[in-house]
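Practice problem: predict the structure.
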Amino acid sequence: MSSVWPWWWLALPLLLLPIWWHRQKRERQQTEPLASARFLPATAPQQQRVWRWTETLLLLLRCVLLSVLIAWLADTVLAWREDTVLLAPAVDAVWAEQQMNEAGMGSAERVPICSPAENCASILDWVAQHERAWRPSARLLLIAKAEQLPLTAHLPQLAHPLILRVQEASTGSASSAPTPPRQRHITLVTNATRRPQWLALFAAFELAGTGSPRTVFDSEPNAQTELLIWDDATSAPPTNWRAPLWWIAAAPVLPEAAQTTALRIEGIDLRYADSARGRFWFSSDWPPRDAQTLRGLHASWQLLTQTTAAYPVTNQTLPAPIVHSASAAANFFTSLTAGSAGSAGSSHEGKPSSLAWLLIILFVMERGLTHARRI
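Answer:
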């Protein structure tokens, strides 16, 4: 839905028009008699047309101007949509149908948005970027799940009224299966002597948490790895390994160990360093040998890795801003030059597109060069 006029690209053969016009302006239809022609026998007049490229700069400028005009028309989205229901992924169909009927938009067009393939950073930002496809009188109904609409400091100001309907996390089938306990993936590289100590360490961590086993030990890091423990003094970790957090208990000299900062957390002396492979914690006292150090390590780990749950947006209606008739000319120019930069109500308001500026510059250059040719 980023462009509703892709057929404008079929107008590229129109680039032949400047060439034809250029040749028509250079063609000479008037014949001039020569004085020496009186000594020649009378013959029927013959003409021979020879292509000769003149004023190639002006011709090239006109072709580029027409190309940019076609590209701008192909990228411009003209408002054509009426009332629309925007459906986020994985929304309960029965609940969504109920919300449409309550909002009086049961017969409106339904458009699925922000599918996993689109990789949307924010649903509301997506609406603001594609808003120019709707007519000024259109209404929008956005139906999404609570975790898909986190509350932000400033909601986007749209040019159309937007009705938000948020499905709570508890809404759904009553017979849904319970959520399994979350697993924590840890990559552990150590020897056979110290491995039981590390296993006992995380067994104590599990008892301090939910009491259910949720630690999975992997031999190599993957996309789900949260912690990588390197306790092998005979070799260094591979350079292509990545993890959010590293615990280096024993290892040869690493490049990250050259620039470390000393830190004391919960009675534990650490050295840490940040790199492209993750954050490194260096300590020679691992695994902990007493209960106090064990509690301090668990507390510091949880403190630095815990995430704050975002508050969802509640059901509400975002009204459209009032546009005064006195600024109609300015609004028309803004919408004309906005192009692919966004709609009038999005965060790109008042920023003309690069194609529009290039079109204006090329037009001024073409007119100036045409006028200079006649002088």
